[in-house]
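[agent] plan:
  1. take the single chain provided in the ticket
  2. run structure prediction with default settings
  3. attach structure tokens to the ticket
  4. add a short note for the reviewer (M.T.)
[agent] executing step 1
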Amino acid sequence: MSDPNDPCRFCTPRAVTRRNELAYCTRDSYPASPGHSLAIPFRHCASFFDLTPDEMNACMELLTAERLAVEKEFNPDGYNVGVNVNVAGGQGIFHVHIHLIPRYTGDSPCPQGGVRQVIPP
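[agent] step 2 finished; step 3 output follows
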């Protein structure tokens, strides 16, 4: 979990795969699967629910484009898209970031339940 007094690692975009006026995409530094990507607004904001409608749309536009790139590079069989909000929701970096997690046939013995199968208990 990040220290709230430390500079935010997402405020300075790195390894950007695509961007628009309000947000950017990058690959996750600790991927749950090959192609795991993040859409991140440029504005520092801790909660997804505090994003403006324009910022939400900008992030979703980038996730759609990133999915096409992931399709070409990794050919996944499915996806999970998610956001962790607050400590109880699993948030460790307090700058909004939306996960695009490619899923592959056989990566979980029982994929029903989706995101619940991404990270083992």
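[agent] step 4 note for reviewer: The chain has one domain: 16-106.
[agent] ticket updated
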